[in-house]
Specification:
five-stranded parallel sheet, alpha/beta, SH3 type barrels, single chain, 7 helices, Rossmann fold, six-stranded antiparallel barrel, about 25% helix
Length: about 375
Amino acid sequence: MTPNNTIAVAMSGGVDSSAVAALLHAQGHDLIGLTLQLWNQRRLAGREGMPESVQGRCCSIDDVYDARRVAEHIGIPYYLVNAQDRFEEEVVRPFVSEYLAGRTPIPCTLCNNHLKFDQLLVTARQIGADRIATGHYARNHFDAQRGRWILSRPADRSKDQTYFLFGLTQEQLSRTLFPLGEMQKPAVREMAAEQGLELAQKPDSQEICFIPGGSYSQFLKAYLDEQGRELPDSSGELVASNGDVLGHHEGIHGFTVGQRKGLGLSSPNPLYVLNIHPDSHAVEVGTDDMLYSHTLKADRLNWVSIPQPGEPLRVAIKIRHRHEPAMATLCVIGHDRIEATFDEPQRAITPGQSAVFYQGDEVAGGGWIC
């Protein structure tokens, strides 16, 4: 059978994915442009607490127009794929459920792990492409000695997106190209300009695509109202670590571990959210030094560059996108569950966030903090 060399480029309408399309086209590859329509950007606009404007958000309708214009400019076929129903089922609803339960999920990781790469690869094959290329800043290669595909951090560490990609399977990695993995962001913009792309200086998207203004609590209210549901009553007490009641709150959905603002408490020292207890609806607060912990547990694991270890493993663990990976010893403690002990205590380890395990530049694996 003749190998299929056509590549489907995941085009978000941003400068990175557009530069990937232009670069691969200039190299002579047969390309197809694909954009996933994930969310109706105007769906909740104008509801109570929600802004009318939808500018500056990932995957907006303006981004779709930009992606189409780039495809036309470089002369490749372009398809817009409606994945809104699946996005709502696999990303939005789990996000809502997690937040109402007092955890802090990461929608972008949920999207990559459960929808985006899977849907792109399925659609690519349906339209005649065997591989996809994306604008993520990451690197991957096949290690013949280990018999595994390896996911690694990019050359431009300031743009490293491997934290959001830890859930990719071996099969997905085998069919995915990350052409920007060896490049620095300024060089990407320069290349886009050289290719005649009008969006070469377009700002990066800063907001989650379905949460305008960045207010999770306002989104929850508007979304549930649209669904004909009321926000569950999770009001309760603000308590000190010794159990003393310091005040009252209107719902655990309004808090996340490490939060300082909006507590409504006066104290000689700044207070922060230490823990959220969904069963009792209590929100535990304390001083900054009390936010530090030596250990975390994670489940729903995915092992990438290595198989599941049978012995304690030394890794660097990243607990937030902007967190510098910290050295720890990781132990498997049960089916699909690990416990890690950091060499130095880490601040605000937050249930619902990802923990990604690194060995050097390689992503050993990752899971969800529990």
